[in-house]
Amino acid sequence: MGISMYLILLAISGLILITALRRRENRNAPAPRVYTSRAPPRRFPPGKLPSRAWNQHDIDEVAELLSHIKFAHGSSQGRIQKCTQGEWKYHFCLSLNIKSLIERLNDPSFPRDYFAFLELNNGNLDFFTYENGPLLSFRSAASIRWDENSLQLQTFMECLIGKSALNAALSELEYTTPIMQPVRMLSIEGSNRVCLIGPQECQRVAQLWAPLLAHPNLLSENVKGKALHHFNEHFGGVSPLATKSFLERWIVLEQGLGKTGTRIFPSFACYLAELAKMDERHAYKGDIRDLETQIAVSDRHMWTRIFAGQA
Questions:
Q1: Distance CA 34, CA 20 (A)
Q2: The pTM of the whole model exceeds 0.85
């Protein structure tokens, strides 16, 4: 009788312990992800905020890139000009309250080259331009905002796997609504032609599409072959959807018009470097296929350095 009672008490104690552990696990479980600009604000400890130690190096780098890009003062779209690196640094540079910006946008992971750009161009200049191309009006730090509806996933996916592969994939999938939700992006340019896409959104897209492309039966070899061709052309044979260095980055997307088309860039510095080449590309009079080849080569050069850990 004593042994039976002991076993019963032992069993009850075990159930109590298991229940307590489960409650503790549920209490410690991460909160569900919220895709909204109304997500509750977070308070970031000092260690989570970017150090000012990087500031001067990135200011120098971005000012050098800006020295190759044409711009115009004010809404009058006045005289198109360029400034030297020194002129950018000493005539336009403003102090930016990074902590305030991070807390307002509720994300501590913004790329430091973009912070440097904001310090150099925080509302002083309205337009960047190039020959035969549209004017770009970048937002000041105060007017940057989240946008959850303007950028369609189709636009992003065409850059990642190619338009031909995406169209073929969508024609084979019977129900596309869950995998084609709009992309949450940071609106940094007045017409939303240029935006930033954060690591969490890159991971969300990859979690949906990488398994589809890897599955032996869901998509045909025709779709996979078209995607592989795009990977070879623009990413050096690597799928960005399965690459850690892509999933942990802030991506710049420019919705191109005319000859250059829509492109993605692995950093804001890479985007500025390409923006400086747009004069030549928009003035190009040769075969459009030659221009497309030039752009693909440039994409491969940018992304293979990222995948190899060189940038």
A1: 28
A2: no
On whether the CB atoms of residues 253 and 208 are closer than 8 A, the answer is: no
| DSSP three-state, residue 196 | strand
In this predicted model, what pLDDT tens digit does every residue of 177-209 receive, in sequence order?
A: 667 889 999 999 988 889 999 999 999 999 999
Q: What count of residues does the chain have?
A: 311
Rounded-to-integer distance, Cα 106 and Cα 295, Å:
35
pLDDT in tens, 272-306: 998 888 766 665 566 667 778 888 999 999 999 99
Helix (H) or strand (E) holding 145: strand 145-151
Q: Which residue has the tokens 């104690």?
A: 13
Give the 3-state DSSP-derived string for 242-309, with helices as H, strands as E and coil as C: HCHHHHCCCEEEECCCCCCCCEEECCHHHHHHHHCCHHHHHCCCCCHHHHHHHHHHHHHHHHHHHHCC
Helix (H), strand (E), coil (C) string for 75-94:
CCCCCEECCCHHHHHHHHCC
